[in-house]
Specification:
With 382 residues, the protein is an alpha/beta fold. It is 41% helix and 20% strand. The chain folds into 3 domains: 68 residues, Arc Repressor Mutant, subunit A (Orthogonal Bundle); 128 residues, ATPase, nucleotide binding domain (Nucleotidyltransferase, domain 5, 2-Layer Sandwich), CATH 3.30.420; 155 residues, ATPase, nucleotide binding domain (Nucleotidyltransferase, domain 5, 2-Layer Sandwich). The strands form 5 sheets. The protein has a 5-stranded mixed β-sheet with strand order 7-6-5-8-12. It starts with 7 loop residues before the first helix and ends in an 8-residue tail after the last helix. Bound molecules: zinc ion.
Length: 382
Amino acid sequence: MTWSPLTGSERDVALAVLLDGPLPRSELARRLRLSAGSLTRLTKPLLASGLVVEMPVEHDQESGRPTRPLDIRPAAHHFLGVKLTADTAYGVVTSIRAEILAHGRRPLPDRDPRSVVAAVAELARTLGAGHGGRWTAAGISLGGRVTEHATVSSARYLGWRDVALGPACAAALDCPVVVDNDLLSLTRAEQWFGAGKGYDDFALLTIGEGIGYGLVAHGRMRSGPDASIGVLGHHPLDPLGPLCPEGHQGCAEAMLTIPAIRHRVSLGLGRDVDYDTCLDLAAAGDPVAARTVGDAAAALGRLTAAVGNLTLTDRIVLSGDGIRLADVGRPSFDAALGRDRSPHASPLDVVVRRTDFTDWARGAAATAIQTYALGVPAGGTP
Ligand SMILES: [Zn+2]
């Protein structure tokens, strides 16, 4: 990818303004330990490029002198984010601060990479109609392994191996494209623009068709080949629990994914029920659904405690399409969390975030924004 990344202190200035602007120059200089002269020199190219703008005159809170705070011009850049599932492309248009300006979806006619690229281009055309149809960059995310932020080395849901999705989408969209694992991109969005903003350390757990896990430590996201294959999904939680397809008894995948919960409730009731119905029945006191959902919520409590205990992180964000489990099964969740956490440890700061596919697409846009601002996604390698 060749889109002249910012480096060193210039990058730090742009990033501070992007994440926390508008900022007075005095505040910016203090945060980054820069002299007023250095700050002026560093901001000059950022102002010239149009990324950073000077706001109307204010009076500095400390000195009382007039100052023009620096901010990002959100309208200067639009980013496209697309999340691919096995049958649908979900898309968003965002500002440079990942605010969603438009969203939509398009079914995939089949799983042939050429059909998928054509569907992404068509979705982009529809979304771009109200936004000039130009993107500073686009991010595409999907469940699977991605190398060099360009090639999908494996994607189980799409049945892909070694698909050069990045270059194909870049040609179709006529803009730089970065491809990312969907869970990692969602973690990036939470880190910069969501529940992880301002935290040096936090973990993200998602519950859906599978179990997702992202970890940010010392401001850097853990990445690498094993970060995108859902290893935490096979963490053991209940020695008497059901089996997962890999033969683990009572692992997270077997206990608390949407398919696992649906399967157990459907089996107990003798009829096929969807996930929301399982949770509705549990909330209404149906014995089969309440028992299954209670067991699953307890497993989620154990998993959350394990993440906190092993990583020494106390901020844990729970999210994903199935996370209503944490609300409906709250008493079981809290009890299990309490049992597995030392009474001497600080209490875990657990945040439940309801998300849908639009949030996952926003994650893909966040990867594009990080790449634009840093040259490489945070935690990634050039
Ligand atoms: Zn397993």
